[in-house]
Amino acid sequence: MKILIMGLPGSGKTYLAERLQPLLNAAWYNADKVREMANDWDFSPKGRVRQSLRMRNFQTYLKCCLRISLPFP
Known about the structure:
Blueprint: H1 13-24, H2 31-38, H3 45-65
């Protein structure tokens, strides 16, 4: 199962994810933390595409190389 939590800044996405994660015993990957690791805070259309590709590549790497699945597309 994959769950994608979306919303405007300050709407409670992290708050909700922090509380759901232990209840579902699921992996949780915060896109802001991934963005921070890349030091890429560009939220323009091109920046959002880069972040989407970064998240996809991160999942592909973990699934392929570490043989685990993550809860995001």
